[in-house]
Amino acid sequence: MSRSNCRPNSSAPFKAATGLGEVIDVTSAAALKPSVVHITGPLIRILGDRFAFGVKVAVLDTLASLLNKARDMLKPFFPQLQTTFMKALNDVNRAVSFVFPALGFLSRKG
Length: 110
Hints:
By secondary structure, this protein is mainly alpha-helical. The chain contains 6 helices and no strands. Helix 4 (53-69) runs parallel beside helix 6 (99-107). The protein is globular and about 30 Å long.
């Protein structure tokens, strides 16, 4: 899901998640390496808080970008990421089909 396709939301958490995702998109995996752990844990925790759905979508999209860019560095987080994306799939009231590629990525061995 492209960040430009996220529902418009002017909240600070939405802007922060979207901005972080954009930074991740333009940053190399090597440059992200020192920060991956410091970025991933808080993003996963944010999804447990009570934020608007638009914020959660932006965070999920950012996590998917991070996973795509730095998969090997995120291996310690795979169980939490799988749970996070599965919970998003179970939200039957929302369009969260963009999590399918992330779950497929997590299920690959290697």
